[in-house]
Amino acid sequence: MALLPDRRTPVHRTGKTDLPAPRRTAPPQRRARLLTRSASRSAKPSPAPAAPDDYPDASGHRARLRKRLLEGGPDALLDHEIIEFLLGLFILRRDTKPIARKLIEDFGGFGALLSADADAIKRTADLSESAAGAIKIVQAATLRLLQSRFKDAPVLGSWQALLDYLRADMAFNPVERVRVLYLNAKNMLIRNVAMSEGSVDEAAVYVREVIRLALEYHATAMILVHNHPSGDPSPSQQDIRLTREIIDAGRPLRIAVHDHVIIGSRGHASLRAMGLI
Q1: Which residues of 227-259 are buried (b: 16+ CB within 10 A; e: fewer)?
Q2: If you average pLDDT over residues 111-139, what whole number do you get?
Q3: Are strands 11-13 and 267-270 parallel, antiparallel or unpaired?
Q4: Is residue 123 a part of any domain in this protein?
Q5: Domain extent at residue 141
Q6: Rounded to two decimals, what is the model's pTM?
Q7: Beta partners for 183?
C-alpha cells in the first residue's frame, strides 16, 4: 500500500523520491519592512507636549463669554471682558484676561485704551498688529455708529448726539487735536475735518486755512472743536481769542461760527453757552 502525501504539505518531486517542498521565506529587506509596518500599526501616538503658556480652559471660558454677550447684550460684559474677548480671537493659547486688565490699567480706562495709538497698544502688552487692530476697530465702529445719529439731520437739532460723538472721539486723546465741522445752509454736516494735532497742551490752527476750507466746501457755518488732554474743558484765553478771530474772518463771507466746543475727560465746555462768543 502506497503512502499518500499529506494534502496540506506541498511535495517537491525529484527523480529519486518525493520530498516536502522547502518553505518560502521573504527576503531580509522585505521582512524588515513588514516588521516596521507592524510596529507602526501597533504603536499608539504619543500626545504632543503642551506649550508652557497653554491656557487649558480657553475654549470653555471664551464660549461662556460669548454666550453672555449674545444672550445678555453689551451690558453683560465688563470693560476688561470686552477686550479679553477681542484678544482671544487672535491669542489662542494664552489667558487674555490679565492682558486686558493690564491694557485698561496702563492707559487709564476703557475709553483711553480705545483712543490710544495702535503702536502704543502693541508695545504695552507685546501684541501683534492684528490684536491691536481688533481694539482699534471697536473705536472705529463706535464712532461710525455715533456719527450716524446726526449725519443726516440738522446738527443743531441733534446736539446731544453730536456731543456723544465728540466725547467718544476726542475726550481721551493724549495730545491736543482740532476739528472743524462744516455745515450747509440747513445746518447739516458737509465735512468733519481734522485740522491739526499738537502736543499735550497746544495745537496750531491757522485762521486762513479754516476759512479757505469753508469756501471750498461751500459751507455757510461751522462748529469748532478741540480737546484738552488734561481732562479740564475750561477754555483758555487763547481759545477765546482764536474763536473770535475766526468769527471776524468769516463774517464778511457770511460764514457763521455756531460754537466752539472743548472736550475733556471730565466733561465739555461750550463757548456759546458760556456767553464768550
Answers
A1: bbbeeebebeeebeebbeebbebbeeeebbbbb
A2: 93
A3: unpaired
A4: yes
A5: 58-145
A6: 0.70
A7: 189, 221
- The single residue listed with the C-alpha cell 449725519 is 151
- In whole angstroms, what is the distance from residue 201 CA to residue 238 CA? 12
Is 65 exposed, middle or buried (CB count within 10 Å of its CB: 0-12, 13-18, 19+)?
Answer: middle
Number of independent structural domains in the chain: 2
Pick the range with the lowest mean pLDDT from 14-28, 65-79, 204-218.
Answer: 14-28
Question: Last residue of a domain, which of 145, 171, 197?
Answer: 145
Q: In this structure, which long-range contacts are made by residues 196-205, counting pairs with CB atoms below 8 Å and at least 24 apart in sequence?
A: 199/175, 200/174, 200/175, 200/176, 200/229, 200/230, 201/176, 201/229, 201/230, 202/176, 203/175, 203/176, 203/177, 203/178, 205/178, 205/242
- Written as one letter, the residue type at 151 is K
* Boundary-marking domain end, from 128, 145, 162: 145
Q: How far apart are CA 3 and CA 18, in angstroms?
A: 11
